[in-house]
Amino acid sequence: MTQKQEEISFETCWDELSRGEHVRQNLSSLRSILREKGDRQGMPGCVGDGADIIGLLSDKEPKVRKNAALLLGDLGLCSAVGELYAHYESEETLFVKSAYLAALQKLDASAYIEAFKARRKELASYVPAEEEKKHIAAELRQLEELIAGIEGIGRHRFIGFDAEQKFLLTANHRQSEVILEETAKISASVKRSAKLHPLGVLVKSQKLLPFVKLRTYRELLLCVPVKERVKATPEDAVNAVWKSGIYQMLSACMEGGEVFYFRLDVRSAMGPDEKSAFVKAFAQKLEAISGRRFVNAPKSYEIEFRLIAAKESGFLPFVRIPSLTAGRFSYRRNVVSASIHPSLAAVLAALARPYLKEDAKILDPFCGVGTMLIERDILVPAREKYGVDIYDDAIKFARENAAAAGEQIHFIHRDYFDFRHSHRFDEIIANMPLRGRKTKEEMDEFYRRFFEKSRELLAKEATLILYANEVGFIKKQLRLRRDYRLLQEFVIREKEQFHLFIIRAV
Fold first, then answer.
1. Second label for 142, Cα 20 to 30 Å away, from 204, 251, 312, 352?
2. Considering 150, 166, 181, which residue would you say is the last residue of a domain?
3. For residue 30, what are the CA distances in angstroms to 10, 36, 221?
4. What's this model's pTM, rounded to 2 decimal places?
């Protein structure tokens, strides 16, 4: 909140508004204060039934009517629903109409659902004049979100492909090699071809679900079957996507209604304003060209169009269906800022697999929310699993995640350097802490203590599996100490210098 907003209280603005002073300014200030505070504490006492604001819905100034409607929604005044709808129906200024709908989205407007549908149908067949297009599109978008909020979106269910399709399992270079190996292990009865791609692994198969179950890819993207690279303008992108037959493809593999609710994600070097304008234009043009069989619903979408900038020029187009992979990491109910993505944890476990043994006793000294331990145990079951972390919230979250995964893991809230145990461990697996604000000298000392402490806890011939971006400090300790031997090293993220180290305690 700005200093000016801090000085102006909700009550002060309300008093001025009630006296008809600085109406537009105070409506805007009240909305800003509500957004900044994030609650409505102390509000009902001065607002009452909102009659003063409802009266402003009849103001001669369109921007006053617009802000009054939006404020009623922000305040959550359900008693205003009837008045908002009545004024929406009678409103003649196009840019104000969508504000009534935005306000009604925050209230219970279910009594008017059939009227909203009728209006949507009317607008969908209306051919607006050039100066109307922007406002009609905004009203339609708000209607779609309002109807979806009341009825929910008629979700489609994936039922499989009728013909062979291409899809991409996204990953960085190191992950891609692991994924490619895993695709080769899928049952021979599943006909497919797979090859490395700059964005991951490109697969061609009629069956999708066996690949969905793999744990090492980041995202699964269906390839939009365009004949050539999509040009980098909204109109060209929409034309290429629509002419590819993507609607027919999705209708064939997904059971449900005629309408698909979507959002667009553009991955390119565009600036925020340029990208926002592109997304908006693309959504409007796709809705129009598809006869609203594709409807833009960025807050409640069921499919995502993904445009990824190609190296030379233009875009590579894909479709992501979140429901397909929704259950892959369903245990991951809690995260913290430093949490590793489970697909990366699965890749690290897969790379280390030749050095993992069943029924091992393993320890994660910086366990966070437990992802590394869980993914390692899913790949090769261990006998006993311990996770240690200095942060209480992380341990709490880890216990909840492990329970959701059906994992029996002992989580201990403690600094690793104070941790003691009566038995030795066969393995330490860790996503090592980032440097943060530590100096070079502090990190050097941290790794010295880490290797010293770990040797106390490890059995002879035990294994350390360390994911870290402090290559120099780790290799320094390996040079200085004779009780550790580097077995293998993988470069995972070359630019950020993240490596996976497989080390033997001797």
1. 251
2. 150
3. 6, 10, 43
4. 0.78
